[in-house]
Amino acid sequence: MATTYETVDQLKKGFEGILKISDGDVKVLDKKKLRSSLIGHLILTAVFSSDEETRKAARWLIRRTGAAMGILSTSIHPLYEAMGRKEVSGFTVPAINIRALTYDVAQSVMRAAMKNNVGPVIFEIARSEIDYTSQCPEEYTCAVTAAAIKVGHRGPLFLQGDHFQVSAKKFASDPSQEVQAVKDLIWEAIEAGFYNIDIDTSTLVDLSKPTVEEQQETNYSLAAELTTMIRDLEPAGMTISVGGEIGEVGGKNSTVEELRAYMAGYLDDLKKSGDDMIGISKISVQSGTTHGGVPLPDGTIAKVKLDFNTLEKLSEVARAEFGLSGAVQHGASTLPNEAFDKFPKTGTAEIHLATGFQNMIYESKHFPAALKDQIYQYIKNKMISEKKDTDTEEQFIYKTRKKGLGPFKKELWNLPKEALHAIGYELENQFSFLFEKLNVKNTSNIVTKYIKPVDVPLKMPEALRA
């Protein structure tokens, strides 16, 4: 049973003979003990230790141990450039948001990827998810890296800030403060090893304005400003993959005219920072989905009519006219299984998957009923203000249960071992299914060809120098 270290001295004693700190970095002395026991202690300490210095020390150890094992966080940008040049095609990159049990779920993703020889898989978390799941970027990085160590993964890790979104309501009240909040999050994420950032300023598109160019103006100008900031912060020798967005998910479907207006304005604004400034590598669009799906009165999910023709056209124009990898589909995890093989066929570059996996965890027969009841009761007590008059209790629970994941994070991580393993393998089977449908099986050679990871230095905490 993994334990949490509460002092740096306990931590040092715990890794003695397994890891060695030398010249400001980590050397692995015993891989077997690292994977079988120590990594579990380190990730619990990194997430749950009550002592901040000990948490920081454990996080540094995990990240640098990963690097010593050939596990390096990196950017998917070079692969997306190749997709833009049409050198590679025929698959859609899965981007997976992990809201709960991050260490265990990431292991399920990696087991499925290793079994199917999958190359590009993105692990991501959105600005809103960071808040309600109580996972800061560095904690998320450590959980995914620890999972990679545990299962024996080697190679690049693609960590992504999903929907680093400007709130339209907060922007209307205080634009500079809201933009600064997103800038601060970008800075924090890059420091944590997120080298893929999706800028979402599509919330500021104003459809009441007379021309498409005017509707998109605030969207593209802010996206250019944030891109410039990212380029200033990116590590030497690496180009961070940046994504833009032209249509808010859940809103009206995007058009080619909007894509062209956004890109024209964005590229013009980007040139003000220098002719050689590298722009976005992909574009998120709206084609008919809603984040989390639309719950019906009985709690089931309404069928979605996805406009694959729009998705295909936008992807093609993005590649042909702007050299992007293609369009990105959000809010897709609750689509019916038969929909997923259509994404590679329409040239969709990337697909974001989140709520469906959360649903699988909650609805698994292995999830303890008593804990679920406890979480649901918490939601009914604490989130009742979010219940609409038209919502049934099932609809209300479905839409808000994601907000129970943060308050009950420790209970979730400490589920019985048998339950964690059973839920993990249910998820692994679903990941394997999706990898096949998205045609990313047997693509590891493509990642090897285009992605050359950079080992970014990481300053050792003072507590470990003593």
The level-1 CATH class of the largest domain = Alpha Beta
CATH superfamily label of the largest domain: Aldolase class I
Spatial sequence of strands, sheet with the most strands: 4-5-6-7-8-9-10-11
What is the molecular shape? globular
Rg for CA atoms: 22 Å
Q: Could you tell me how far the N terminus lies from the C terminus, measured between alpha carbons in angstroms? A: 29 Å
Which key features would you list for this structure?
single chain; 466 residues; alpha/beta; TIM Barrel; 3 domains; 8-stranded parallel beta barrel; two-stranded antiparallel sheet; 11 strands; 12% strand
Structure write-up:
By secondary structure, this protein is of the alpha/beta class. The protein folds into 3 domains: 8-69, no CATH class; 71-361 and 417-450, Aldolase class I (TIM Barrel, Alpha-Beta Barrel), CATH 3.20.20; 368-413, no CATH class. The protein has helices at 8-15, 31-48, 52-68, 77-84, 102-115, 127-132, 137-151, 168-173, 175-191, 212-233, 256-271, 308-322, 342-345, 355-363, 369-382, 393-400, 409-413, 417-437, 444-450, 462-465, and strands spanning 19-22, 25-28, 71-74, 93-97, 122-126, 155-165, 196-200, 241-245, 282-285, 327-329, 350-353. The strands form 2 sheets. It has an 8-stranded parallel β-barrel, surrounded by 6 helices. Strands 1-2 form a two-stranded antiparallel ribbon. The protein is globular, with a radius of gyration of 22 Å.
